[in-house]
Amino acid sequence: MSGGINLGIKEKTAEHLARLALFCFLAFLPMIWQSQYALGLLTLMAVYGILLIGLDATVGYLGQVNLAQAALFGLGAYGTALAIQSGLPFSLALLAGVMAALLPGAALALPSLRLDGPQFALSTLSFASLAVIVLNESESITNGALGISVPRPLFFSMELDARRFYWFCLIVLSAVWWASGLLFKSRIGLAIEALRDSPTATDALGIGSLKHKAVAFAWGSSLAGFAGGLHVMNFGYLQPSAFGYDLMVILLLGVVFGGRRNQWGAFTGAAAVTMLPNLLSNRMMFSVFVTLGCLVAFTAPLKALLARRRPAFSESAPAAGMALCFALALFVPNLELWRKGIFALFLFSAVVGLPEGITGALVSEIRNLLRFSPEPLPAATGGISEPAPSDTAPLRTRNISKSFGGVIAVRDISIATEQGEILGLIGPNGSGKTTLINLVTGLYAPDEGSVEISGRRIRQGSLMAASAAGASRTFQNLQPFSSLTALESITVCQRKIDKPAAMALLQIVGLESKARLRCSELSFGDLRFLEIGRALATQPSLLLLDEPAAGMAKPDIARLIELISSIRDYGITILIIEHHQDVITEVCNRVAVMNGGRLIALGTPEEIRRDPLVVEAYLGGEETVPSSGDNHAILSC
Question: What secondary structure does DSSP assign to 512-524, as a single string?
């Protein structure tokens, strides 16, 4: 960034210093703000910070609306409370709370993580409702709606008063913040973000989706249980109704309002939702808060009107939501009765108006004002890995067929490739080319026949099995990991993170200068090359390219031809679907032609040009020897 003041320090260092200053300030607050009520709120804020960092693992990083976090928080609280009543010490009581949330969370994860979108949200909502009912009806264990009271146990023979307990929660929050940052910057964390953008690509590249979903959900459930244990030690009293709908909405509001995929956002959201219920009991404070919200919300539509532009929905809707809150602050006698409606309006305004949350908006402004030194990029070493020599065919299909609703997409196709060969796959649109690649890579299961990669028969319909056997691919429709940088997109596909080798692959595909850019900032052509780099990062013996030149300009196509030829020099077998005849004629050793789901010809590019069946399939005529111009037309389709 060219503007702003250059501080001469790295952004990561600045973030560490800001976090240290924050925790020092929070630790010092009880020395000047000695009210027991205020200390209780500060402790609750720290507990909610831990809880929202856990919720952000699924809502932010995984991209799934998890409505079970409030219930898991309650189960953790009851697990800790019952452990304290049975006489367990401090540390074991907290561990009991973690397990009380983690084990039911695992039972929920087994079916739910196979779902996406609304189905996942509904499954977690059902679990949350059932959990509260069980806590309420299990009177012999939980005392039901009457609730239970528990004393705070000794911490290694030391009594923790309110101030010491707050400091303890602050230390735990700091440790959780640090651990969560490490987790989501590791390969596991990058994989969790990648599968949010494209579960299909993560499986096809051998990253895996289900196991990383389970890690995110388990981390979130564990933190919910831990936070629940701290919560019951803070208040000393529990009721099942405290973990119902209101808390569910408050937690979602905290994650969205604070900012997703960011520990700072989770803390900001925790601070906001800790204070919000208390604001409702103080009309003046609530009115001030809503007035400030209105000033922020009305800024964007006013700018649009001054620019003689009609405000967009994302600009006008938050203003309308905050205006309704302002009206409630003025005219409603009892704000507590409108608690759910006010929470819903805040959530709506935050989702529409602040897609990156308060933290995202602040970070964006800070980056406009200040400049930080970027982290140094690793030196490029290594590059494309050569596959081990083998006597078996890199790819062999045996009589595979596939139909969709009675329409036969692929019919009885048998193909075998040689090591280091580039086999082109051409045919009219709808001839079944992409379906064939999807069958080879396990995206589809064949109705008949089998697929062998490097001599290994692939389990039908398993992307991970095809990848483990040595197959890797690109996609006809781009599948970028939009939230990751170009360098992270390569490293997440490696079996073990090796940033110098990842930089070498970026250099090979011509993107080393864009290593720090997110995929959402790259051009269409760059993303095409990045997909090839991702596929090479898996160290494949078989590379499948599905129309890699689609949408590319001529200079990029020439660069692509050179890249594909260099990949072949390493002994990697390539199966390529392409409609550009210059790519096919310049790089392919053999060409397979499909029509109507069948394989109608297989030979060298020159032989294919003169094949009468190919001529008829493309030109619809009966000529046996086409003209030179038609030769090129055949391979350009």
Answer: GGGTTSBGGGS-H
Give the residue among 496, 394, 408, 411 at the shortest CA–CA distance from 455: 394
Q: Parallel, antiparallel, or unpaired: how do β-strands 395-404 and 471-473 relate?
A: unpaired
Calculate the CA 548 to chain-centre distance: 25
41 closest CA partner among 234, 210, 193, 313: 234
Question: Measured on CA atoms in the order 168, 174, 175, 177, is the torsion positive or negative?
Answer: positive
Give, in order, the Cα–Cα distances in Å from 581 to each of 427, 561, 630, 634, 635: 12, 11, 11, 8, 5
| DSSP string for 539-563 | --SEEEEESTTTT--HHHHHHHHHH
Q: Cα-flanking dihedrals φ and ψ of residue 155, to 5°?
A: -100, 95
Largest CA distance in the chain: 96
The whole-model pTM stands at 0.86
| DSSP helix/strand/coil, 462 | coil
Residue 61 has pLDDT above 70, yes or no: yes
Pull the structure tokens for residue 45: 């804020």
pLDDT digits (tens, 9 = 90+) for 278-315: 777 778 888 888 888 888 888 889 988 988 899 888 88
Reported as a single tens digit per residue, the pLDDT across 345-378 is 887 888 788 888 888 888 888 888 888 888 889 9
Letter for the amino acid at 131?
A
| Parallel/antiparallel/unpaired status of strands 422-426 and 573-577 | parallel
- What are the start-end ranges of the H helices in 156-209? 162-185, 187-197, 199-204
Alpha carbons 207 and 492: distance in angstroms, whole number: 7
In what side-by-side order are the strands of the sheet with 407-416? 407-416, 395-404, 448-453, 456-457
Radius of gyration of the chain (CA): 29
CB 247 within 8 A of CB 70: yes
Separation of alpha carbons 248 and 66, rounded Å: 9
Length of the chain as a residue count: 637
Q: Give the three-class secondary structure for 482.
A: coil
